[in-house]
Automatic annotation (TrEMBL):
The keyword Zinc applies. It comes from the Eukaryota. Residues 61-102 form a coiled coil. This is GRF-type domain-containing protein. The keyword Oxidoreductase does not apply. It holds the Pfam family Zn_ribbon_GRF. Transmembrane segments: none annotated. The lineage of its organism: Eukaryota, Viridiplantae, Streptophyta, Embryophyta, Tracheophyta.
């Protein structure tokens, strides 16, 4: 990520001029974006791609939606796993109880 000059001026939620950066991530190499110019702890969270259009944002929304679906599925799987672990635990508890009562009589 490096600072660069952009043709458009954009203001962030603080009402100040947002700073322009160039993305260096593998997903968006060389893509320019604007961000609040204040340091992380004080900034307003403003962040926008320079070429952000309705089409791009709907692609991003779809991407996020499919990520959410995957996460939901993973959660369901984990819930099922947890259920089966709980059943295992109950079975082990019963086994332990019966072993303990056996021990008591010996
Ligand atoms: Zn700001």
């Amino acid at each position: 990520m490096s600072e660069s000059t952009c043709d458009t001026m954009m203001t962030c939620f603080c009402g100040e001029m947002a700073r322009c950066f160039t993305s260096r991530t593998p997903l968006n190499p060389g893509r320019r974006f604007y961000r609040c110019s204040k340091p992380k702890i004080k900034n307003c969270g403003f962040w926008r791609w320079e070429d952000s259009s309705l089409e791009n944002s709907s692609i991003e929304v779809n991407l996020l939606k499919s990520k959410l679906e995957v996460a939901t599925l993973k959660m369901e799987n984990l819930r099922e796993l947890l259920n089966s672990i709980n059943i295992d635990r109950d079975n082990l508890k019963k086994k332990l109880e019966s072993l303990q009562s056996l021990n008591y009589f010996m």
